[in-house]
Amino acid sequence: MDYDVIIIGAGAAGLFAAANILSDRILVLEKSENAGRKIAIAGGGRCNFTNCTSREELINHYFEKRNFVKPATYDFPPKKLISYFNKNGLETFTDEKGRVFPKSMSGEDVVNLLLKLCKKNNAKIEYSAGVIGVEKNDGHFIVKTETEEYSSFFLIIATGGKSYPSLGTTGDGYRFAKMLGHRIEPPEPALTPVKTREIRGKSLAGISVRDKWVFVLRNNKKIIVCRGDVLFTHKGISGPAILDLSRVIKSGDTIEIQLTDFSNEDELLYDFNCKIDKNGRKQIANLLSIYAIPNRLSAFIMERLGLDKTIRCGDLHKRDRKRIVKNLFFRCEVEKKFGFDKAMLTKGGANVWEINSRSLESKLVKGLYFAGEVIDVDGESGGYNLQFAFSSGKLAAESINKKLNHK
């Protein structure tokens, strides 16, 4: 064989696997001119690479794939990843939400460390080496690029998904998986902002509300809920809560943001009337600020209802009080969610039922492994997806190491 292991893709999963396979015959094929491009831009370039949570709690951030990710993340949880980076010279910082970053707040430092570890492990990286075909023949894999043909005993597909296609992640791994007989769950954008109808183009851009309950309604039924921060943009809404919900959002859905701490309109109306009784001479906009509602958002709500924001509380008709309270359970209709060019992640990919979760080896093709976003696994925002990329790369590497020892 030319190599013991060929890895397609020099992203987080591919590089981490290459750094941990116990062989000096490793080839990484990367179609771009640089490695780790998504790592470098993650978290606005700050690279939130994991979350400081227990391994038991960690799996709850991967939705219906929690059982599939369990072996990889239990074997290599956040605590071990942070320790691994620290021992290899990367200092880290944890914020108040448990998100972990390199202390330098630069994703480039994470990429440079991974490349350093790959070099130390004698892993060879070929750049501008786009793979055009893969097959298995006589017990080994043949991997073809436009100019070369390579062979190996083991193959890891770690090409990522379809998010950020400008960085080269255009779903190539799905094609390679299909060539080897695997099913692909339809890829969809995840962790992406939402374009809304009524508030688009309004003066709400830049407004954020923190730690609010957010619901998705379809046919007037609440189908999913999340709690987190929401950011209004010039085209719609974003922020961690919206990004996490985007995996299920569809055109025509309604988003409801609970702007106060009250869970139903009756309780809020009672409290609202009590505050009006005590603050009858205040302008309504000033009263709404007691609920920590930003001034521009209050003004938008009043405009939406056709009410003067300077009206005194004591002059508000009971009917208008109810209308205001109803709008504090703020609703807007989804025109669409943004596509892969804005999405941070892909939902869909290589079907998990055809992959052994305890080794990440294919159940269909011996010696074939998957790691990272190419698998149909998507987690919440906050470092969970990079954590899975590293955990899955590590598990694939360790699984191959066991076979190399017996080869």
Walk me through this protein's architecture.
By secondary structure, the protein is of the alpha+beta class. The chain has helices spanning 12-20, 37-41, 55-58, 66-75, 78-87, 107-120, 172-179, 240-245, 265-278, 284-288, 295-305, 318-327, 384-405; strands at 3-8, 26-29, 50-51, 92-94, 99-102, 123-126, 131-137, 140-145, 149-157, 184-190, 194-196, 208-218, 221-232, 236-238, 254-258, 329-337, 345-350, 368-370. Strands 1, 2, 6, 7, 8, 9 and 18 form a seven-stranded mixed beta sheet that branches. Helix 1 links the parallel strand 1 and strand 2. It is elongated.
Q: What's the SSE blueprint?
A:
Layout: E1 3-8, H1 12-20, E2 26-29, H2 37-41, E3 50-51, H3 55-58, H4 66-75, H5 78-87, E4 92-94, E5 99-102, H6 107-120, E6 123-126, E7 131-137, E8 140-145, E9 149-157, H7 172-179, E10 184-190, E11 194-196, E12 208-218, E13 221-232, E14 236-238, H8 240-245, E15 254-258, H9 265-278, H10 284-288, H11 295-305, H12 318-327, E16 329-337, E17 345-350, E18 368-370, H13 384-405
Helix pairs in contact: 1-6, 1-13, 4-13, 9-12
CATH topology of the largest domain: FAD/NAD(P)-binding domain
Quick one: CATH superfamily of the largest domain? Answer: FAD/NAD(P)-binding domain
Q: In total, how many domains does the architecture comprise?
A: 2
Q: Which structural class do the helices and strands define?
A: alpha+beta
CATH architecture of the largest domain: 3-Layer(bba) Sandwich
Care to count the β-strands? 18
Portion of residues in beta strands equals 25-35%
What's the rounded overall pLDDT mean?
95
